[in-house]
TrEMBL record:
The keyword Kinase does not apply. Gene3D superfamilies: Vaccinia Virus protein VP39. InterPro entries: SAM-dependent_MTases_sf. This is Methyltransferase type 11. It comes from the Bacteria. Keywords: Methyltransferase, Transferase. One of its GO terms (biological process) is methylation. GO terms for molecular function: methyltransferase activity. SUPFAM superfamilies: S-adenosyl-L-methionine-dependent methyltransferases.
Length: 204
């Protein structure tokens, strides 16, 4: 069944706010984690690949997963056009499917967590998908009043996240939180500011 992400996929990258968030996240990630050229990476909620294509040159292999077939079609087109050979793109529903066990050195997820109802379920699946010593990097909205998204959207399960509460979710899952702080702000035309956090956690 087509969803809002399928319908908006072709125009997704035309939004400069989304592009800037991904650019800032990649910049901060490379500063904080310094991806090695031999790592296996999962980008969960990859969408049109704004994060995936930013990290792909610095990794041995990247897997992009998303529940939107429309988004994945756009990403596949980009990969084909650029003749990229170290990326796999998979349709996946985190609510009903497991992730591969101990398969990745790094798991990324950008602006996806607020669409997943059960935060600890997601973190638990990510934890088990990581190799020992692997890290996850999650970027998303800090707590907001619901005005970040311009129109009602039933795919939104959380109005951002309180950083202290999110740290507890990571720790309950077994992660060691290495970094959890604001890395970017979206400023609307109205002057409203919406801070975004980056969380980096390690599987020991």
């Amino acid at each position: 069944m087509e969803n809002k992400f399928d319908r908006s996929a072709k125009d997704w990258d035309n939004n400069p706010v989304r592009v800037k968030i991904a650019e800032k996240a990649i910049q901060e990630l490379r500063h904080r984690v310094s991806p090695a050229p031999d790592i296996q990476v999962l980008d969960y909620g990859t969408g049109t690949g704004l994060m995936l294509l930013g990290i792909q040159p610095y990794a041995a292999h990247v897997t992009g997963m998303d529940s939107s077939l429309g988004m994945l079609d756009v990403l596949r087109g980009k990969i084909k056009a650029a003749e990229i050979t170290n990326v796999d793109v998979l349709h996946h529903n985190i609510e009903t499917e497991e992730l591969p066990k101990e398969a990745f050195h790094l798991v990324l997820s950008n602006m996806t967590l607020h669409h997943i109802a059960d935060t600890e379920m997601f973190l638990r699946k990510v934890y088990h998908a990581l190799k020992s010593g692997g890290s996850c990097c999650i970027t998303d909205l800090e707590t907001e009043d619901g005005s970040f998204h311009h129109e009602p959207d039933n795919s939104i399960k959380h109005l951002g996240f309180d950083k202290n509460e999110l740290a507890k979710h990571f720790e309950a899952t077994g992660f060691e939180v290495l970094h959890l702080d604001t890395f970017h702000e979206v400023v609307r035309e109205t002057g409203r500011r919406y801070p975004l956090f980056m969380a980096i956690a390690k599987k020991n």
